[in-house]
Amino acid sequence: MSDNTNAGPPQPTEQPRRWLTGKRLLWVGLLIVLVLLAAAAYWPVDYSLKVSPETTYLTGPLREDGTVDYVEALRRLGADHIATDQNSVRLFAQAFGPDWWVPHVLHDALTELGLSPLPAGGDYFVSFRKFVETLPADQQEFVDADGNELDTYEFLAMARKTPWSADQYPRITQWLADIDGPLALIVQGAEEPHFCLPIVPRDAEGLYTVLLPVVGRLRDAAKALGARAMLRAARGDIDGARADLLACHRMGRLVERDWILISYLVGISIDTMAHDGDLALLRTGRLSREQTAAILADLRALPPVRPVADNLQQGERLFILDAIQQLAGSAASRSTGFMELDTIGRRNVNWNIPLRMANKSWGDMIAAMGKADYGERRLASQQWERDNEEWLYPKGLAASNKPIDRLLYVAKLAALRLSGNFGRPRLSRMTGVAVMRILFPSLNRSRDFEERLRTWDELTKLALALSLYKHDHGQYPDDLAALAGEYLPAVFKDRFTGDPLHYQRLGQGFLLYSVGRNQTDDGGLNADGEPADDDLVVHIK
Questions:
Q1: Could you read off the pLDDT of 317-365 as tens digits, one per residue?
Q2: What is the pTM of this model?
Q3: Which end of the chain is least crowded, N or C, by CB within 10 Å?
């Protein structure tokens, strides 16, 4: 047995060294989280365009790449009438000649309409301004009765206010004689039931590349018809004057049916000018009962004024969605003109988000503008503005033009871009805001223009009915209610307030007016006997 009395204390057994310490576990965990985050941020996600009522609104027809072909969609709307004799555009094209379209789409336009080539230098409509340019220099200046200089538009407007003789306006008389043939085609065209403009060029990539004819020429033609109506009235040809003004009304209602807003507004302008002419004839006091009744019957037989909401639904809404779709599919290297999008990069945007934003915004706005009651429409429009103030009234860095703020804004976009899928929803929404801010037209007054036209239509009908009452009873009635039943189915109310229109007998005449869009009664007439502020006034002396 050995002696261990001198052995030292027992030595601890050496443990193996642990690799996974708490600190290392923490770092490994962080690394795994970062890898997962990176994978989530940059994992391929399908952000291709989704065709649906919520994004593209239309779900067909489709192009080969699966996107909506808005050009073909609009082309199909007029396919049944574009090349038929019921399309007024065929006659208008022959009246205005080959320069109604730009040269490189003329062939496509005429082919769509089923027309043969139009010869250069034919007997085509010429505006009064163009006609004046052909006169000697000393006949190209105009003044009013007080010696004030007028341009051709102002001078021609004088000839549409009241009947006039050839001696008063010899240059206008000559112009009307020169364009008698084209005007006959325009009057004939106004009698057709359809207004279908060709969608050209045939290979248009999107609605933004569609080229329209110079629709403003139709307004020039309406001015010519309005002036000729006053000349005919002065010669005692009331039936001829009535026919010219009726052609203006019909042309206005036709043009209102086009898909683009500018045509709609031109149609409203034409229709309003025709109402001015109707009232000018009435103010002469020369209309017989039969002639007055015929004009009233003409107005009541016209097709209804097209709501601007229908126009926006069919045209402008599609135009915006098509533009966003085109931005999504454009070459990645091409500049877009949108600073946000050029910084973000097209591939970093989920384009379904801008499409959904624009589509919903349009839908809400159209619903607001489609309300029949003016007061309800104003409240709905104000709510729409509050709901869309993010892009209507941008704030912060996005709205600033200071160099440092723009630099910070670009840095913010770059940081969001680097965050991959995490920042993509925000980047996509910012893109939608930027695009909507640029592409959305100003529409606040469009519905007011429609309301004004409808009001003028009703005021003119009431004025004619009042004249019929006077023919039958020897004087105007004390109240508009006397017209209901025998002269009109019902008496119109003020569209802007829902209250009765203002009416009073004044001497041998009457004053009839609406308070207009400010919804304030300004008295109808000011101290000079002219319409007060924005009141819409018919004053028969």
A1: 999 999 999 888 764 445 455 555 565 666 778 889 999 999 999 999 9
A2: 0.87
A3: N
216 close to 158: Cβ distance less than 8 angstroms: no
- Confidence band (pLDDT; 50, 70, 90) for 146? confident
User: Are 134 and 155 in a shared domain?
Assistant: yes
End position of a domain, from candidates 305, 320, 349? 305
Same-domain check for residues 375 and 462? no
Of 514, 508, 513, which is closest to residue 476 (Cα–Cα)? 508
- Look at residues 529, 467, 538, 474 and name the one whose alpha carbon lies nearest to residue 503: 538
Do 289 and 375 lie in one domain? The reply is no
pLDDT digits 0-9 by tens, 160-203? 999 999 999 999 999 999 999 999 999 999 999 999 999 999 88
Q: Is 223 among the domain residues?
A: yes
Paired tokens of 148:
């004030």
The β-bridge partners of 538 are: 512
Cα separations (Å) of 308 from 159, 192, 373, 380? 30, 22, 14, 16
Task: Let me know if residue 45 belongs to a domain.
Answer: no
3-class DSSP assignment, residue 408? helix
